[in-house]
Amino acid sequence: MARIVELDGAGDPDPPAPLLDDFRDLSRADRRPDRPGGRGLVLAEGTVVVRRLLASPYPPRALLGVPRRIAELEPELAPLDVTAFVADAGTMADVVGFHLNRGVLASADRAPAPDLDGLLATASRVAVLEGVNDHENLGSLFRNAAALGVDAVLLAPGCADPLYRRSVRVSMGHVLRVPFTAGSWPELTAALRARGFVLGALTPAGDVAPAALAGADRVALLLGAEGPGLSDEALALADHRVRIPMVPGVDSLNVATAGAVAFHAVGGAGVA
């Protein structure tokens, strides 16, 4: 059952609560390298994203919010073993280190990454990202993947952390819903080939449109970072080089936008 702890104007309960440290000075410390595993906590902002965190596989730890936001979340909090710190907006800003417009934060421990082969066993549409190191692009890609029926995301070398606070926020919490795991190109390619995936690499130099892959039972779409795109290694691994048709004079889209167009074209599960 959730425990409600009200903070006074000093921002500290009596007795002190170590879980409140999950939210301190987030502008400098939200990667939390001191946490087990070295990659930090999962942090969610706003009632919509917090609800998705509470319904996700990530074990919730604590919340910090203004009274109205905590009250809105009471039905979800009631059965959970979490601490909810309640504070006014000023006290909350003192703890966090900046003013938070969304009025509530939640922290969770990270869940173990799923087994790669097990993840692919039931998947038919997969995104494989290489070098996507912008947290907003990464969050947008996960949101698009969730909306357009992509079953899993594989992170090839060079990607940023999908569970960084900004990625979670931009994804609207869908990074907590779409399963993902990371690996080397040899490892990822071997697993995809073993499961019969057709690999399509998105590139301005492609010679087929994404819709050409729609009839395949299993499709993996490879997307690279803004600017450099996919590496020569990734392009060499693909069965097809895929280009989104565009008007003359424009050769590329933002990676998250390109992903959305390609995800829709190959037809994920549940997408009309």
Q: Which range does the strand content fall in?
A: 15-25%
- Kindly provide the name of the CATH class of the largest domain: Alpha Beta
Radius of gyration: 21 Å
CATH superfamily of the largest domain, please? SPOUT methyltransferase, trefoil knot domain
Intertermini distance: 40 Å
What is the overall silhouette?
Answer: elongated
Instruction: Report the CATH architecture of the largest domain.
Output: 3-Layer(aba) Sandwich
Walk me through the structure.
This protein is α/β, with parallel strands linked by helices and 272 residues long. The chain has two domains: 3-108, Ribosomal protein L30/S12 (60s Ribosomal Protein L30, Chain: A), CATH 3.30.1330.30; 116-266, 3-Layer(aba) Sandwich (Alpha/beta knot). The chain is 31% helix and 18% strand. It is built from eleven helices and eleven strands. The chain has a six-stranded parallel beta sheet. A five-stranded mixed beta sheet has the order 1-4-3-5-2. β7 (152-155), α8 (165-170) and β8 (180-182) form a beta-alpha-beta unit. The longest helix is centred in the middle third of the chain and has 13 residues, at 135-147. The chain starts with a strand and ends in a 6-residue tail after the last helix. Mean pLDDT is 90; it is low at 30-39.
List keywords for this structure.
272 residues, Alpha/beta knot, 11 strands, six-stranded parallel β-sheet, alpha/beta, 60s Ribosomal Protein L30, Chain: A, 11 helices
